[in-house]
Design goal:
Layout lengths: L2 H22 L4 H22 L12 H58 L4 H34 L7 H10 L1 H9 L7 H40 L4 H11 L6 H16 L1 H27 L7 H42 L1
Helix pairs in contact: 2-3, 2-5, 3-4, 7-8, 7-10, 7-11, 8-9, 9-10
Length: 347
Protein backbone atom coordinates (compact mmCIF):
# COMPACT_ATOMS: atom_id res chain seq x y z
CA UNK A 1 0.00 0.00 0.00
CA UNK A 2 1.41 3.38 -0.99
CA UNK A 3 2.10 6.29 1.32
CA UNK A 4 -0.77 8.22 -0.28
CA UNK A 5 -3.20 5.41 0.56
CA UNK A 6 -2.03 5.34 4.18
CA UNK A 7 -2.48 9.11 4.33
CA UNK A 8 -6.03 8.85 2.92
CA UNK A 9 -7.02 6.09 5.36
CA UNK A 10 -5.54 8.02 8.29
CA UNK A 11 -7.56 11.12 7.35
CA UNK A 12 -10.73 9.02 7.04
CA UNK A 13 -10.16 7.46 10.47
CA UNK A 14 -9.48 10.87 12.01
CA UNK A 15 -12.71 12.23 10.48
CA UNK A 16 -14.70 9.29 11.91
CA UNK A 17 -13.15 9.78 15.35
CA UNK A 18 -13.85 13.53 15.19
CA UNK A 19 -17.47 12.84 14.16
CA UNK A 20 -17.91 10.41 17.06
CA UNK A 21 -16.44 12.91 19.53
CA UNK A 22 -18.70 15.69 18.19
CA UNK A 23 -21.78 13.47 18.73
CA UNK A 24 -20.61 12.19 22.14
CA UNK A 25 -19.82 15.57 23.73
CA UNK A 26 -23.04 17.47 23.00
CA UNK A 27 -23.22 18.86 26.60
CA UNK A 28 -20.20 21.09 25.90
CA UNK A 29 -21.88 22.76 22.92
CA UNK A 30 -23.73 25.32 25.06
CA UNK A 31 -20.70 27.14 26.51
CA UNK A 32 -18.83 26.97 23.19
CA UNK A 33 -21.79 28.33 21.19
CA UNK A 34 -22.45 31.08 23.77
CA UNK A 35 -18.75 31.99 23.75
CA UNK A 36 -18.69 32.21 19.95
CA UNK A 37 -21.81 34.38 19.94
CA UNK A 38 -20.31 36.71 22.55
CA UNK A 39 -17.05 36.86 20.59
CA UNK A 40 -18.84 37.83 17.37
CA UNK A 41 -20.88 40.49 19.22
CA UNK A 42 -17.88 42.01 21.02
CA UNK A 43 -15.39 41.78 18.15
CA UNK A 44 -16.25 45.22 16.63
CA UNK A 45 -15.77 46.80 20.07
CA UNK A 46 -12.43 45.03 20.50
CA UNK A 47 -11.33 46.25 17.06
CA UNK A 48 -12.33 49.79 18.04
CA UNK A 49 -10.33 49.74 21.29
CA UNK A 50 -7.29 48.08 19.69
CA UNK A 51 -7.29 50.75 16.95
CA UNK A 52 -7.19 53.70 19.35
CA UNK A 53 -4.16 56.03 19.35
CA UNK A 54 -3.22 58.38 22.17
CA UNK A 55 -2.51 61.84 20.82
CA UNK A 56 0.35 62.02 18.35
CA UNK A 57 2.14 59.01 19.88
CA UNK A 58 2.30 55.67 18.18
CA UNK A 59 1.21 53.83 21.33
CA UNK A 60 -1.63 51.44 20.65
CA UNK A 61 -3.68 49.29 23.00
CA UNK A 62 -2.81 45.61 22.70
CA UNK A 63 -5.58 43.26 21.64
CA UNK A 64 -5.56 41.52 25.03
CA UNK A 65 -6.16 44.83 26.85
CA UNK A 66 -8.80 45.75 24.24
CA UNK A 67 -10.63 42.50 25.03
CA UNK A 68 -10.55 43.30 28.77
CA UNK A 69 -11.87 46.83 28.12
CA UNK A 70 -14.66 45.33 26.01
CA UNK A 71 -15.51 42.95 28.85
CA UNK A 72 -15.71 45.88 31.27
CA UNK A 73 -17.98 47.77 28.89
CA UNK A 74 -20.17 44.66 28.45
CA UNK A 75 -20.41 44.19 32.24
CA UNK A 76 -21.55 47.82 32.66
CA UNK A 77 -24.22 47.33 29.98
CA UNK A 78 -25.36 44.03 31.53
CA UNK A 79 -25.52 45.63 34.98
CA UNK A 80 -27.66 48.47 33.60
CA UNK A 81 -29.95 45.99 31.83
CA UNK A 82 -30.19 43.91 35.00
CA UNK A 83 -31.11 46.94 37.08
CA UNK A 84 -33.70 48.48 34.78
CA UNK A 85 -35.02 45.43 32.88
CA UNK A 86 -34.12 42.13 34.55
CA UNK A 87 -35.36 42.89 38.07
CA UNK A 88 -38.81 44.09 36.87
CA UNK A 89 -38.92 41.08 34.53
CA UNK A 90 -38.20 38.64 37.39
CA UNK A 91 -40.97 40.22 39.45
CA UNK A 92 -43.41 39.97 36.54
CA UNK A 93 -42.33 36.42 35.71
CA UNK A 94 -42.83 35.33 39.34
CA UNK A 95 -46.37 36.67 39.14
CA UNK A 96 -46.92 34.73 35.90
CA UNK A 97 -45.68 31.49 37.48
CA UNK A 98 -48.03 31.96 40.44
CA UNK A 99 -50.98 32.65 38.15
CA UNK A 100 -50.10 29.99 35.55
CA UNK A 101 -52.39 27.21 36.90
CA UNK A 102 -55.34 29.61 36.98
CA UNK A 103 -54.50 30.82 33.46
CA UNK A 104 -54.41 27.25 32.14
CA UNK A 105 -57.84 26.58 33.70
CA UNK A 106 -59.21 29.73 32.07
CA UNK A 107 -57.77 28.62 28.72
CA UNK A 108 -59.54 25.26 29.12
CA UNK A 109 -62.81 27.05 29.93
CA UNK A 110 -62.27 29.27 26.88
CA UNK A 111 -61.87 26.26 24.60
CA UNK A 112 -65.02 24.66 26.03
CA UNK A 113 -66.99 27.86 25.45
CA UNK A 114 -65.68 28.16 21.88
CA UNK A 115 -66.63 24.55 21.17
CA UNK A 116 -70.14 25.14 22.52
CA UNK A 117 -70.47 28.27 20.42
CA UNK A 118 -69.38 26.49 17.24
CA UNK A 119 -71.82 23.64 17.99
CA UNK A 120 -74.65 26.18 18.04
CA UNK A 121 -73.80 27.36 14.53
CA UNK A 122 -75.27 25.55 11.57
CA UNK A 123 -72.22 24.15 9.87
CA UNK A 124 -71.36 20.85 8.17
CA UNK A 125 -70.05 18.19 10.54
CA UNK A 126 -66.60 18.15 8.92
CA UNK A 127 -66.29 21.92 9.46
CA UNK A 128 -67.35 21.49 13.11
CA UNK A 129 -64.72 18.79 13.58
CA UNK A 130 -62.04 20.92 11.93
CA UNK A 131 -62.81 23.93 14.16
CA UNK A 132 -62.83 21.78 17.30
CA UNK A 133 -59.55 20.16 16.39
CA UNK A 134 -58.02 23.58 15.69
CA UNK A 135 -59.20 24.96 19.04
CA UNK A 136 -57.96 21.90 20.91
CA UNK A 137 -54.59 22.05 19.12
CA UNK A 138 -54.19 25.78 19.88
CA UNK A 139 -54.99 25.24 23.55
CA UNK A 140 -52.62 22.28 23.79
CA UNK A 141 -49.90 24.26 22.01
CA UNK A 142 -50.26 27.17 24.44
CA UNK A 143 -50.02 24.88 27.46
CA UNK A 144 -47.04 23.03 25.97
CA UNK A 145 -45.34 26.34 25.12
CA UNK A 146 -45.69 27.54 28.72
CA UNK A 147 -44.32 24.27 30.06
CA UNK A 148 -41.49 24.26 27.53
CA UNK A 149 -40.46 27.80 28.52
CA UNK A 150 -40.31 26.70 32.14
CA UNK A 151 -38.21 23.65 31.23
CA UNK A 152 -35.83 25.78 29.16
CA UNK A 153 -35.38 28.27 32.01
CA UNK A 154 -34.79 25.50 34.55
CA UNK A 155 -32.41 23.75 32.15
CA UNK A 156 -30.54 27.00 31.58
CA UNK A 157 -30.24 27.48 35.34
CA UNK A 158 -28.83 23.95 35.71
CA UNK A 159 -26.25 24.77 33.01
CA UNK A 160 -24.89 27.84 34.82
CA UNK A 161 -21.92 25.79 36.05
CA UNK A 162 -20.93 25.09 32.44
CA UNK A 163 -21.36 28.76 31.55
CA UNK A 164 -18.62 29.74 34.02
CA UNK A 165 -16.08 28.95 31.28
CA UNK A 166 -17.81 31.29 28.79
CA UNK A 167 -15.78 34.43 29.70
CA UNK A 168 -12.51 32.47 29.42
CA UNK A 169 -13.41 30.96 26.04
CA UNK A 170 -14.70 34.32 24.79
CA UNK A 171 -11.46 36.01 25.84
CA UNK A 172 -9.31 33.56 23.89
CA UNK A 173 -11.62 33.57 20.85
CA UNK A 174 -11.32 37.36 20.70
CA UNK A 175 -7.63 37.64 21.55
CA UNK A 176 -6.26 34.75 19.47
CA UNK A 177 -8.73 34.47 16.59
CA UNK A 178 -6.04 35.11 13.95
CA UNK A 179 -3.72 32.55 15.57
CA UNK A 180 -6.52 29.97 15.80
CA UNK A 181 -7.48 30.61 12.17
CA UNK A 182 -3.90 30.08 10.98
CA UNK A 183 -3.59 26.86 12.98
CA UNK A 184 -6.76 25.55 11.32
CA UNK A 185 -5.46 26.54 7.89
CA UNK A 186 -2.16 24.72 8.52
CA UNK A 187 -4.15 21.47 8.84
CA UNK A 188 -4.88 21.62 5.08
CA UNK A 189 -2.54 20.70 2.26
CA UNK A 190 -0.28 23.51 1.04
CA UNK A 191 -2.09 23.87 -2.29
CA UNK A 192 -5.47 24.09 -0.49
CA UNK A 193 -4.62 26.67 2.16
CA UNK A 194 -5.53 29.74 0.13
CA UNK A 195 -8.96 28.26 -0.59
CA UNK A 196 -9.36 27.22 3.08
CA UNK A 197 -8.50 30.75 4.24
CA UNK A 198 -11.09 32.19 1.86
CA UNK A 199 -13.77 29.74 3.10
CA UNK A 200 -13.07 30.43 6.78
CA UNK A 201 -13.05 34.21 6.31
CA UNK A 202 -16.30 34.16 4.32
CA UNK A 203 -17.96 31.90 6.91
CA UNK A 204 -16.83 34.20 9.74
CA UNK A 205 -18.14 37.23 7.84
CA UNK A 206 -21.57 35.66 7.28
CA UNK A 207 -21.96 34.35 10.83
CA UNK A 208 -20.76 37.56 12.50
CA UNK A 209 -23.16 39.63 10.37
CA UNK A 210 -26.02 37.23 11.07
CA UNK A 211 -25.46 37.11 14.84
CA UNK A 212 -25.08 40.86 15.29
CA UNK A 213 -28.05 41.53 13.02
CA UNK A 214 -30.20 38.93 14.76
CA UNK A 215 -29.37 40.29 18.22
CA UNK A 216 -30.26 43.83 17.10
CA UNK A 217 -33.52 42.69 15.48
CA UNK A 218 -34.48 40.72 18.61
CA UNK A 219 -33.85 43.76 20.83
CA UNK A 220 -35.84 46.07 18.54
CA UNK A 221 -38.78 43.66 18.23
CA UNK A 222 -38.77 42.90 21.96
CA UNK A 223 -38.97 46.62 22.75
CA UNK A 224 -41.76 47.17 20.18
CA UNK A 225 -43.84 44.26 21.50
CA UNK A 226 -43.33 45.33 25.13
CA UNK A 227 -44.40 48.88 24.30
CA UNK A 228 -47.45 47.68 22.34
CA UNK A 229 -48.61 45.26 25.04
CA UNK A 230 -48.06 47.88 27.74
CA UNK A 231 -50.11 50.47 25.80
CA UNK A 232 -52.86 47.93 25.08
CA UNK A 233 -52.82 46.92 28.78
CA UNK A 234 -52.19 43.22 28.13
CA UNK A 235 -50.93 41.36 31.21
CA UNK A 236 -47.21 40.55 31.54
CA UNK A 237 -45.87 42.91 28.82
CA UNK A 238 -42.22 42.36 29.85
CA UNK A 239 -42.58 38.58 29.57
CA UNK A 240 -44.29 38.92 26.18
CA UNK A 241 -41.60 41.33 24.99
CA UNK A 242 -38.82 38.91 26.02
CA UNK A 243 -40.71 36.03 24.40
CA UNK A 244 -40.95 38.04 21.17
CA UNK A 245 -37.21 38.78 21.32
CA UNK A 246 -36.40 35.09 21.81
CA UNK A 247 -38.74 33.77 19.11
CA UNK A 248 -37.31 36.29 16.63
CA UNK A 249 -34.30 33.97 16.43
CA UNK A 250 -36.55 31.47 14.58
CA UNK A 251 -37.12 32.86 11.07
CA UNK A 252 -40.61 32.98 9.48
CA UNK A 253 -42.53 31.00 12.13
CA UNK A 254 -40.87 32.50 15.23
CA UNK A 255 -42.91 35.74 15.28
CA UNK A 256 -46.13 33.71 14.88
CA UNK A 257 -45.17 31.52 17.85
CA UNK A 258 -44.39 34.61 19.93
CA UNK A 259 -47.75 36.22 19.16
CA UNK A 260 -49.95 33.29 20.26
CA UNK A 261 -49.53 33.77 24.08
CA UNK A 262 -50.21 37.51 23.73
CA UNK A 263 -53.41 36.87 21.77
CA UNK A 264 -54.61 34.29 24.31
CA UNK A 265 -53.85 36.56 27.29
CA UNK A 266 -55.68 39.44 25.57
CA UNK A 267 -58.69 37.21 24.85
CA UNK A 268 -58.84 36.18 28.52
CA UNK A 269 -59.15 39.88 29.44
CA UNK A 270 -61.75 40.74 26.81
CA UNK A 271 -62.28 39.20 23.33
CA UNK A 272 -62.19 42.59 21.57
CA UNK A 273 -58.69 43.18 22.95
CA UNK A 274 -57.50 40.02 21.19
CA UNK A 275 -58.57 41.56 17.86
CA UNK A 276 -56.49 44.66 18.64
CA UNK A 277 -53.49 42.50 19.56
CA UNK A 278 -53.81 40.52 16.31
CA UNK A 279 -53.90 43.76 14.31
CA UNK A 280 -50.90 45.05 16.26
CA UNK A 281 -48.83 41.94 15.45
CA UNK A 282 -49.84 42.02 11.77
CA UNK A 283 -48.71 45.66 11.46
CA UNK A 284 -45.50 45.05 13.43
CA UNK A 285 -44.54 42.05 11.32
CA UNK A 286 -45.15 43.98 8.10
CA UNK A 287 -42.85 46.72 9.41
CA UNK A 288 -40.32 44.06 10.43
CA UNK A 289 -40.34 42.26 7.07
CA UNK A 290 -40.21 45.37 4.88
CA UNK A 291 -38.19 47.86 6.95
CA UNK A 292 -36.36 46.43 9.99
CA UNK A 293 -34.94 43.15 8.63
CA UNK A 294 -33.86 44.50 5.18
CA UNK A 295 -32.08 47.47 6.75
CA UNK A 296 -30.36 45.50 9.52
CA UNK A 297 -29.68 42.17 7.84
CA UNK A 298 -29.42 43.18 4.20
CA UNK A 299 -28.33 40.07 2.29
CA UNK A 300 -26.18 38.57 5.04
CA UNK A 301 -27.59 35.06 4.74
CA UNK A 302 -28.87 35.19 1.14
CA UNK A 303 -30.98 32.03 1.40
CA UNK A 304 -34.22 31.50 -0.51
CA UNK A 305 -37.29 31.13 1.78
CA UNK A 306 -37.74 27.55 0.53
CA UNK A 307 -34.29 26.58 1.86
CA UNK A 308 -34.96 28.49 5.09
CA UNK A 309 -38.19 26.53 5.70
CA UNK A 310 -36.55 23.19 4.85
CA UNK A 311 -33.63 23.93 7.18
CA UNK A 312 -36.09 24.89 9.95
CA UNK A 313 -37.96 21.61 9.53
CA UNK A 314 -34.74 19.58 9.63
CA UNK A 315 -33.35 21.50 12.62
CA UNK A 316 -36.63 21.21 14.53
CA UNK A 317 -36.86 17.48 13.84
CA UNK A 318 -33.29 16.81 14.98
CA UNK A 319 -32.80 19.21 17.91
CA UNK A 320 -36.16 20.86 18.68
CA UNK A 321 -36.32 24.61 19.36
CA UNK A 322 -32.52 24.95 19.59
CA UNK A 323 -32.21 23.21 16.24
CA UNK A 324 -34.63 25.67 14.65
CA UNK A 325 -32.63 28.60 16.04
CA UNK A 326 -29.38 27.21 14.65
CA UNK A 327 -30.81 25.91 11.35
CA UNK A 328 -30.47 29.06 9.24
CA UNK A 329 -26.84 29.97 10.08
CA UNK A 330 -25.82 26.31 9.68
CA UNK A 331 -27.58 26.20 6.29
CA UNK A 332 -25.78 29.41 5.30
CA UNK A 333 -22.41 27.88 6.23
CA UNK A 334 -23.20 24.73 4.25
CA UNK A 335 -24.14 26.90 1.27
CA UNK A 336 -20.73 28.61 1.39
CA UNK A 337 -18.87 25.30 1.69
CA UNK A 338 -20.83 23.61 -1.09
CA UNK A 339 -20.49 26.62 -3.41
CA UNK A 340 -16.73 26.89 -2.98
CA UNK A 341 -16.10 23.13 -3.11
CA UNK A 342 -18.31 22.88 -6.23
CA UNK A 343 -16.46 25.72 -7.94
CA UNK A 344 -13.13 24.13 -7.03
CA UNK A 345 -14.13 20.71 -8.36
CA UNK A 346 -15.31 22.27 -11.63
CA UNK A 347 -11.93 23.89 -12.10
Amino acid sequence: MSLTSYDTWLKAILLLVAGYIIIAVTPVYLPVIVSLIMAFILNPLVNYFSGLHFGSSTFKISRGIAVLLSFIFAIIVIFAIGTFVLLPFIHEFDKLIINLPALLLRIQDMTINLEQYTNMLEMPNNVHMLIQQTIASAAAFSADLARHILRVILGFASSLVQLVVVPVLTYYFLKDWLILKEKIILMFAVNSRRRARHVIEEMALVISGYIRGQVLISIVMGCIVFSGMYILKVDYPLVLGLLAACTETIPIIGPIIGSIPAIILAYLIVPSLAIKVIMFYIIVHQIENHIIVPNIMGHTIDLHPVFVIISLLIGGQLFGIIGMMMAVPVAALLRIIVKLVWNTSER
